[in-house]
Request: fold
Amino acid sequence: MEEQFILRVPPNVAERIERLLNENNSSSSEDKSLDLSFSEDGRSGTFVIGNEHFPASLLDLPCVVESYKTYDDNSLIKTADIGQMIMVRESGDAAPDVIEYRHGLTPPMRDARKRRFRREPDLNPELVSRVEKDLLKIMARGTADNLDVEAAEQEEGDENARGANKKPAPKPAPKHDAPENLTNAGEPDRSDSEESDDSV
Reply:
């Protein structure tokens, strides 16, 4: 894999760079000088083209961009993952106060960090460090310091009490011989199956 970065320059500087790349050796050597140098912090520097100096900043992109090249206009070969961009500014422009650029490289990725990605959760650093220490102790076959033992004992006691206090299921009541339904005349009701056919 190659090492690559994105160089974003103002439009007038872009025209000069394009002219330098397209011209042959006919122009003077002073116009052809390009230089990029960074200060000790590694995030701010100076871009030099010809005799002009422009401030530059190294910014992290909100997402990784893949770079490809082709030899036959048919198959693509991945050459690099690009995660940083050098932004060259005009002399009067203010330097960015963050190290991560808000936007991606294309219009759909405008304000990508806010619109496309999930927000980082607001976690208390003390809580995170306490949980981390507890997990390391548990992994080392120890016990956690901030364990709520009373709740666990109470739950176990409740389960035992539930098992002891279980009542047996009620037995079904025995069926008593119910008297047959009587009609108004005092004769028992006959169903259709009890009737005999006297016509035979």
User: Anything to note?
Assistant: The CA atoms of residues 19 and 32 lie 10 Å apart. The helical segments are 11-22, 112-115, 125-139, 149-164.
